[in-house]
Amino acid sequence: MLPDDLDPAQFSARRVVHRFADPATLTRAAAEEVVGRLMRAVSERGTATMALAGGSTPKSLYRLLAEEPAFRDRVPWAKVHFFFGDERHVSPDHSESNFRMANEAMFDRLAPDLLPPGNVHRIRGELPAPEDAAVEYARELERHFGQGHLPEFDVMLLGMGPDGHTASIFPGTSALRENAITVCAVWVDKHSTNRITMTPPVLRNARTVIFLVAGPDKARVLKSVLEGPRAPDRYPAQGIVSLNGETLWLVDAAAASAVG
Ligand code: 6PG
C-alpha cells in the first residue's frame, strides 16, 4: 500500500518518464544515469550503493557498464557496494539466479582488482528456508546502513513484469504489505516458487529509483501503471516512488507504444 501521506497528486507528480527509440539507446541512457549518480554519491559521501534488478532487461546495461570504457572507466567500482533488490530461491549458479545473471553480465567481466569481492552483497537464495535468507539479508543491510536505519540506496534499479510486479513484489502477495521489515520471503503462486525481496519501504527510500522497461510485452501494463487509476495492489510497480528523491522511468518505444 502507498503511505497514507502520499496523495495521488504527489504520487503521480513524482515520476519522470524518458522514452527511447530502441533498447540500445535505452541501455546507454540508463548507463549514463547510473554512472552519474554513483559518481555523485562517491564525491559527496565517499561511497555509493546500488540495488540491482534481476530478470533479463538489465543484462545489457550490466554488460555495458563493465565493458564500455566510457562507462567502465568512470564507475568508482572500489567505492560502490552492490546489493540485489530480490533473488529467486535457488543457488547462485542456477540459471534462474539474479546473482548469476549480474555476475556473468558484469562482475565477472571486470578486472579482478577493480571491484573488491566484499562489495557484492548477494542474497543467499540457496538456503533451504527462504525466510532464513531474508533475515540474513536484512542483517546484511543493517551491517551496511546501520542498525535501525532504513537502507537508503543511491540507485535502486528496478524492472517491471507484464503483470506490474517489481522486484519480487507481485500482485496479491504478502510482500505488498511488508512495511515493518526490509527484506521478506514471499510465496509467488503464479510461479509456484518462493522469492526473497526487499520490501516497499526500502525501495521507496532510495535517492533515485530507476525503472528500466523495454519490449512490447510491457506496453499494456506500462499504460496502466503510468496513466491508469491508482491501483498499487494490482500493479505493485505503480506504488514504488522515491519518497524523497527521484523516480525515473526509462522505457523504450515498444514498451511505451500504448502510452500517450
Ligand atoms: C526478477 C526481477 C523482476 C524483473 C521483472 C522484469 O527477479 O525477475 O527482479 O522484478 O525485474 O520480472 O523482468 P524482465 O526484465 O525479464 O522482463
Which parts are unreliable, with pLDDT below 50 for 5 consecutive residues or more?
Answer: none
* Helix content estimate: 25-40%
Give the CATH architecture: 3-Layer(aba) Sandwich
Question: Which structural category do the helix and sheet elements fall into?
Answer: alpha/beta
Report on this structure.
There is one protein chain. This protein has 260 residues and is of the alpha/beta class. The chain has one domain: Rossmann fold, CATH 3.40.50.1360. It has helices at 8-13, 23-45, 59-67, 69-72, 98-105, 130-145, 200-204, 219-227; strands spanning 15-20, 48-52, 80-84, 86-88, 155-158, 183-188, 193-198, 208-213, 246-252. The strands form two sheets. The chain has a six-stranded parallel β-sheet with strand order 1-9-8-5-2-3. The protein has a three-stranded antiparallel β-sheet with strand order 4-7-6. Strand 8 (208-213), helix 8 (219-227) and strand 9 (246-252) form a beta-alpha-beta unit. Helix 3 packs parallel to helix 5. The protein is globular. The model has no long low-confidence stretch (mean pLDDT 95). Bound molecules: 6-phosphogluconic acid. The site of 6-phosphogluconic acid has 15 residues, from loops.
